[in-house]
Amino acid sequence: MLRRERLEIKTPDQIRLMRASGLVTAAALAAVREAVVPGAVAGDIDHLAETVIRDHGAEPNFLGYAGYPASICLSINDVVVHGIPKRQVIHEGDIVSIDCGAVLHGWHSDAAITIPVGDVNARSDCLVEVTRVSLWDGIAAYARAQHLNEVGAAVEASVLAGEPSFGVLQDYIGHGIGTEMHMDPEVPNYAVRDRGPKVRPGLVVAIEPMVVEGRIATVTESDGWTVRTVDGRWAAHWEHTVARTDDGVWVLTAEDGGAGELAARGVTIAPLE
Ligand code: MF3
Ligand code: CO
Question: Ligand 2 centre and the CA of 210: distance in Å?
């Protein structure tokens, strides 16, 4: 079915405001990355993220979203996404996904990283890296895409080239972002049949591959949030908020705007600075 979506197209000034929001999210993730060590308690990491966000004059956009009770999602091992940080203790060998977002002057940003804690088994280490690389391959595709669903095709191809036995989750997808955290368009992280909406300057999306070692089936726990793999195998999640500009892309939640990773893929970033 053809559906013409009403997409929020941002002006250059609005993208600059979203960049300021994105840098707050980047700062919060940089802080928590250092704090994810053996013995750390999830709730403390949540408080750290919230403090960094508020110290920058922003607010955590996850807190209170559909009743969500924390400022970050913290998802350990077989938890794919939306783990609620409470009293979980982090151990050596875990992989910990942190999803974080901020709203500043009404503009949202959203990003996620997965952190291997100390010595992690080789397969899980590979899972984290393959997922991270697939995000950047997806962002590079977005820089050149005519239609949005070229992104998901690139992400999926990247994952399967990295490790054919891994699976790309289909239960959760990326999204448009701007004056709300979740907006049209949908951004699948896998190849789909239709082309998706035309990509144009001013479109800002959150690209967020979730990749699993085993089957892609998930189950949501009775807390209404925590999403686990059904087979108990592990998952990784990486996400950036990315603006399409006149000349390419600007990765709003990456400190360097994406310059480093994208240069390696032959893409020059097009910041509005
Ligand atoms: N950041 C998540 C996403 O990427 C959304 C988290 S929902 C919340 O779409 F309620 F936990 F905030
Ligand atoms: Co998101």
Answer: 11
| Contact indicator for 255, 23 with CB cutoff of 8 Å | yes
CA 60 to ligand 2 center in whole angstroms: 13
Residue 96's domain is classified under what CATH number? Answer: 3.90.230.10
Distance of CA 140 to the CA centre of its chain: 15
Q: Return the CA Rg of the chain.
A: 17
Ligand 1 pocket check for 101: Cβ under 6 Å? yes
Q: How many domains does the chain have?
A: 1
- Confirm whether 270 is domain-assigned: no
pLDDT in tens, 52-87: 999 999 999 999 999 999 999 999 999 999 999 999
Range of the domain at 99: 12-263
Atom of ligand 1 nearest to the CA of 182: 9
pLDDT single digits (tens) 99-134: 999 999 999 999 999 999 999 999 999 999 999 999
